[in-house]
Design a protein that fits this description.
The two termini are 26 Å apart. This protein is mostly helical and 100 residues long. The protein has a domain of 67 residues. Helix 2 packs antiparallel against helix 3.
Length: 100
Amino acid sequence: MLKHAGEFRTYEITKKEWVLEGDTVLYLNWEDLRRAIDYDLEKERAYIYKGKSPDEMITHLTRFVSRLWQTHAFGEGNVFMLTVRIATPLIDRTESGKQP
């Protein structure tokens, strides 16, 4: 576990990505992180899984996780672990037809 695990970053980031031919992903500015995370979590809490097909649930979860990734609220190394920790049990429940 990294020493900054669970702490919002307090700096701007850019990362040259080879898949973008050296360009960077546009990450959210650090001053807006709390508001963005609160918004995404509220949308997730309000989402009704009951009656949705597995494909609809997985599409929803994919969008939720991608928003968390794009926000990149935590220091390097922690975002990946956060998304895996959130997504894995939700996808497992979705595939079994249970409400996440």
